[in-house]
């Protein structure tokens, strides 16, 4: 077995000597990159993708050690997207290769690539590679707050993709501010976790102090509103247990969590919100639509039925365009809702009007 291993290494080293021009490197990259990533130059060559890159990409610890032993590879060399070998190993979660490379003083573990501006730590965090993240965080020459070209930090990437273990590790550093917003829509880490429906991650900052649970983004969307819109009932229940969350707060279009839940047909969330005394079923948005027309306009039969069982839903009420729930259901072809409305004596037929653009 030892002779076979040496023989295989000899063949591998011979192949990897000019790996950037070999067909096998092209095959590896085409099968391993994300959709839309273009690894080749105009000549069809993965420029700069060395044998060390290939070994790191595939997670071949023995070959990596052999290449480093020959000392014929620059460990800071970058490929077509500016990835170093340690960046590839971190991105793909190959802990053994990362460990071997980090033992070399020539390796720079905090170098961002040129395409995305992402460091090895950010790649590992975004992809949920806890072992690699732990190794990188133990080093003094790795900045856990370094951002990519879109101002995304390792913590932010881990939150968005739902990697709870990585999030906990990064938060233990104590340098992250939960209320810090991104540079796009002004959304906090907490709000992004809610949008993605990561209930486990949502619970983490709730165990800590100094987090604003009602902090809205640039559109006025609060965490509760986003959870209601996305259908994340478990998160809605968590937030409603707090005294510092306003369950009836509206965004810039006047839409409350109840209107979001009703419009999107989330029966469970609609029911939970209506159980509170501080939620108005007849509260209207900027176009004069309450929860009933919101649900009727989108054909949400179950939610409409639930609302009509109440005495405070008012199915005759017109919006600012003169439309009622009944006319909205008819206009949009929702026969189930229309059938319910036709059976009610208090369902005003209303009139057709302009379509309302919702957000």
Give a description of the structure.
The structure is a single chain. This protein has 20 helices and no strands. It is 46% helix and 0% strand. Among the domains are: 108 residues, Ankyrin repeat-containing domain (Serine Threonine Protein Phosphatase 5, Tetratricopeptide repeat, Alpha Horseshoe), CATH 1.25.40; 106 residues, Ankyrin repeat-containing domain (Serine Threonine Protein Phosphatase 5, Tetratricopeptide repeat). The chain is an all-alpha fold and 359 residues long. The relative contact order is 0.05. The chain starts with a helix and ends in a 17-residue tail after the last helix.
Keywords:
359 residues, mainly alpha, Serine Threonine Protein Phosphatase 5, Tetratricopeptide repeat, 20 helices, elongated
């Amino acid at each position: 077995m030892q002779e076979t291993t040496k023989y295989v290494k000899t063949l591998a080293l011979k192949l990897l000597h000019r790996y950037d021009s070999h067909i096998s490197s092209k095959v590896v990259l085409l099968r391993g990159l994300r959709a839309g990533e273009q690894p080749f130059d105009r000549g069809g060559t993965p420029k700069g993708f060395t044998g060390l890159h290939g070994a790191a990409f595939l997670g071949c610890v023995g070959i990596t050690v052999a290449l480093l032993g020959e000392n014929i590879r620059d460990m800071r060399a970058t490929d077509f997207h500016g990835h170093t070998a340690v960046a590839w190993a971190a991105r793909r979660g190959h802990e053994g290769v990362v460990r071997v490379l980090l033992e070399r003083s020539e390796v720079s573990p905090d170098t961002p690539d040129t395409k995305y501006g992402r460091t090895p730590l950010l790649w590992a965090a975004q992809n949920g590679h806890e072992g690699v993240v732990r190794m990188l965080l133990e080093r003094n020459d790795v900045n856990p707050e370094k951002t990519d070209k879109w101002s995304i930090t390792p913590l932010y990437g881990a939150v968005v993709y739902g990697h709870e273990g990585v999030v906990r590790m990064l938060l233990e550093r104590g340098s992250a501010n939960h209320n810090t917003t991104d540079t796009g829509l002004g959304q906090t880490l907490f709000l992004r976790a809610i949008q993605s429906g990561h209930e486990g991650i949502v619970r983490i900052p709730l165990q800590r102090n100094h987090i604003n649970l009602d902090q809205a983004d640039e559109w006025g969307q609060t965490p509760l509103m986003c959870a209601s819109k996305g259908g994340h009932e478990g998160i809605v229940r968590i937030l409603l247990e707090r005294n510092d969350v306003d369950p009836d707060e509206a965004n810039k279009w006047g839409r409350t969590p109840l209107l979001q839940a009703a419009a999107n047909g989330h029966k469970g969330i609609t029911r939970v919100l209506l159980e509170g005394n501080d939620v108005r079923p007849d509260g209207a948005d900027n176009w004069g639509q309450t929860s009933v027309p919101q649900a009727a306009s989108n054909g949400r039969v179950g939610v409409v039925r639930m609302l009509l069982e109440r005495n405070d839903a008012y199915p005759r009420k017109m919006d600012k365009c003169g439309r009622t729930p009944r006319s909205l259901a008819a206009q949009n072809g929702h026969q189930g809702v229309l059938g319910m409305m036709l059976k009610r004596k208090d369902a005003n037929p209303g009139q057709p009007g302009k379509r309302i653009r919702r957000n």
